[in-house]
Design brief:
The complex is a heterodimer of chains A (about 400) and B (about 250). Chain A is an alpha+beta fold and about 400 residues long. Chain A is about 55% helix and about 20% strand. In chain A, the strands form two sheets. In chain A, strands 1, 3, 4, 5, 6, 7, 8, 9, 11 and 12 form a ten-stranded mixed beta sheet that branches. Chain A has a two-stranded antiparallel sheet with strand order 2-10. In chain A, strand 3 and strand 4 form a beta hairpin. Chain B has a single domain, classed as P-loop containing nucleotide triphosphate hydrolases (Rossmann fold), CATH 3.40.50. Chain B contains eight helices and ten strands. In chain B, the strands form two sheets. In chain B, strands 6-7-8-3-9-10 form a six-stranded mixed beta sheet, with helices on both faces. A four-stranded antiparallel beta sheet of chain B has the order 2-1-4-5, covered by helices on one side. Classes of the chains: A alpha+beta (about 400), B alpha/beta (about 250). At the A-B interface, helix 2 and helix 11 of A face helix 2, helix 3, strand 6 and helix 4 of B.
Chain lengths: ~400, ~250
């Protein structure tokens, strides 16, 4: 049984090798390469389609990552928030005692109050910028800044200490550690910089201690925006979550991943930003299909007498379809390589800007598969034309 | 001057086997009031070892008859037998498969693929016949040598003369050793000398075992290479000249 499987596998591998290394592959390439200007146009078309898809989807991935960055980097296991909270940036106040109530639940290692609050920063030049003030327990670190590249997180323990991201220095008019700024008419001192802590809502995150944030945001001593919960190592997350909900009326308890997803879905789809990106990526597919289909069809029409000759010589439907598919795949591979190379470069360049772009390997591979399918679909029209060719048409 | 036929002579049993038989074959183009009867009630046998010429005025049905013999055109009526097997279904897939196994074609305007070299054109035909790459390469090389164009194997068709192109086309038609070679006006686009070479080549192919060559031609000079000449008029065979009496021997 296994022997026959091995033989069958070898036979299939041999068939695949014969399909690739064949005269039809050579002919597919030569027919394409024969008209260099058309080949150039179709490769540029596919490359543009790939670039469009890659850029739009990497923006989507980047936005999703940015939108939920505060949650996914928080280190918390559970988020206690006001009922109906749809994203991390827009929270309602909840009683501060929820922290103590949470700590009474078995399985909770500790719980910390957490503030995410829109505020106004006055630039040194007098202008103002909206920011999102993030206050957390500096000693425990849940929900604190990440990628700190200058200064120290411990300095946030100073009453007026803040950390901002270096990508937003110019926007906020901040130049160096030690600089003082005004937030909601309160003085704050920059004690460090992060790198790459982006914001989806165009208001940069500014980290401070919970107390500093509480003062600046004028939040009551009895209130907080969130309670972040860290579980004991062997705690049953679902059981703790249920116990918290049962104990505290009027609150939601989300685990970290679910809250990150809720935030992403809200910002990307409630605002339409995500659909715009997806539609633009789909437009890339349409452009790719149209450009490739047009080029393959034109090539097929140009070479119809050759296809008729091959038909007379005994070329079956499978062989002729294979020829068109090979042309489509050649265009796909070359166009994809060009488009993806430019996209990777664009993503590299974007890493230094405020627009986050993420192009993970799975997305690169999926885009490759989409490009192959896109070009193969584009070959269908040409295929129909070639299959219908009458071999008697070559007789004069 | 008569060019010799099969080396083993007309009495050779294999030379007498019919490769294709047509019985009362009609070919009709169109339908209803616009129907045109291109071939009517044609009965003939194409035998191994013979070079059969189809002659006649334009519109007499030569090419249609060649297409029926070459399994490119299904008869509208009558019976077509290939190697003793009566063909009843003429779906395209089966016809293509049978052409691949039994037929090689030579066209008036060569129809070489311009983006492939001479040897690649022949190798492509080998591939269509199901011959693996390495074997196809060596067979293509042998066939190119056979038609005397070994030195031009890597030339593209655009760099070949008309006669050379036609010889490459003949080499291509021989890929996979088909038992039928069908040629449509093989000398029409050639000068006298090149035409003679092509006809000599076709003549020598017919001398090989188990193969027949059927050629449509207007060229009267080609008749001296033929074993048999069929003259068509208005879709009917009006003259069947069996020069060496193969048909009589078969009967």
């Amino acid at each position: 049984m296994s022997g026959s499987l091995v033989i069958g596998g070898r036979a299939a591998a041999g068939a695949r090798r014969r399909w690739v290394l064949s005269m039809s592959t050579l002919l597919a390439w030569r027919n394409l390469a024969h008209d260099r200007s058309r080949l150039g146009v179709v490769i540029l078309g596919v490359a543009f389609a790939v670039l469009l898809m890659a850029v739009q989807l990497s923006l989507l991935f980047g936005f999703a990552d940015t939108a939920a960055g505060l949650v996914s980097h928080s280190g918390a296991d559970l988020w206690i928030c006001g009922r109906g909270t749809k994203n991390v940036d827009q929270a309602v106040e909840i009683p501060a005692r929820r922290r103590f109530e949470a700590m009474e639940i078995p399985g909770v290692a500790w719980a910390d109050k957490y503030i995410v609050h829109f505020a106004v920063l006055r630039r040194p030049d007098g202008g103002t910028e909206s920011i999102v003030l993030v206050g957390y327990n500096v000693s425990r670190g849940l929900g604190g800044p990440w990628n700190v590249v200058e200064g120290s997180v411990d300095d946030l323990k100073r009453p007026d200490g803040i950390i901002v991201d270096d990508l937003y220095k110019e926007k906020l008019g901040i130049t160096h550690v030690g600089q003082t700024v005004e937030i909601n008419s309160h003085r704050a001192r920059v004690v460090g910089f992060t790198h790459g802590v982006r914001t989806f809502v165009q208001s940069p995150y500014v980290f401070s201690s919970f107390k500093t944030a509480q003062v600046i945001s004028r939040l009551s001593q009895d209130a907080t925006k969130y309670v972040l919960v860290k579980l004991e190592a062997n705690a049953d997350r679902r059981a703790v979550q249920n116990a918290l909900v049962a104990k505290m009326p009027g609150i939601d308890v989300d685990d970290n991943k679910a809250f990150a997803l809720t935030t992403q879905v809200y910002w990307l789809f409630s605002t339409g930003a995500g659909m715009d990106l997806i539609l633009a990526a789909f437009l890339g597919v349409v452009i790719g299909v149209v450009v490739t289909a047009q080029a393959l069809y034109a090539s097929a029409v140009d070479h119809l007498p050759e296809y008729a000759t091959m038909r007379a010589m005994g070329a079956g439907d499978f062989y002729l379809r294979g020829l068109i598919i090979k042309q489509a795949l050649i265009v796909a591979v070359v166009g994809y390589s060009v488009g993806m190379a430019i996209a990777v470069l664009a993503v590299r360049l974007a890493s230094h800007g405020v627009a986050a772009m993420l192009l993970p390997l799975p997305l690169i591979l999926v885009l490759g598969a989409i490009t192959m399918i896109m070009c193969a679909l584009a070959g269908l029209v040409a295929m129909r034309r070639v299959i219908a060719v009458n071999p008697t048409s070559i007789f004069r | 001057m008569k060019v010799p036929l099969c080396d083993r002579g007309p009495a050779c049993p294999t030379a007498l086997l019919p490769i294709v038989k047509l019985a009362d074959v009609d070919v009709v183009y169109g339908s209803g009031a616009e129907a045109v009867l291109a071939i009517r009630q044609v009965t003939l046998e194409v035998r191994a070892g013979e070079l059969l010429l189809l002659m006649g005025p334009s519109g007499s049905g030569k090419t249609s008859l060649l297409q029926v013999i070459g399994l490119l055109l299904p008869p509208s009526a009558g019976q077509l037998t290939l190697r003793g097997e009566a063909l009843t279904a003429f779906d395209q897939r089966r016809m293509t498969c049978l052409r691949k196994s039994h037929c090689g074609f030579v066209f008036q305007s060569y129809n070489l693929l311009p983006n492939l070299t001479a040897i690649e054109n022949v190798q492509l035909a080998c591939e269509l016949k199901g011959i693996p790459w390495d074997d196809g390469r060596s067979q293509a090389s042998e066939l190119i040598e056979k038609v005397g164009l070994g030195a031009k194997r890597d030339s593209y068709p655009g760099a070949l003369s008309g006669g050379q192109k036609q010889r490459i086309a003949i080499a291509r038609a021989l890929a996979g050793a088909p038992d039928l070679v069908l040629a449509d006006e093989p000398t029409a686009a050639l000068d006298f000398q090149a035409g003679q070479h092509v006809m000599e080549l076709l003549r020598s192919l017919a001398n090989e075992d188990e193969r027949a060559v059927v050629a449509v031609t207007h060229d009267r000079r080609a008749t001296r290479f033929a074993d048999r000449i069929l003259v068509l008029q208005d879709g009917q065979i009006v003259h069947d000249q069996d020069i060496l009496g193969l048909g009589d021997a078969h009967d």
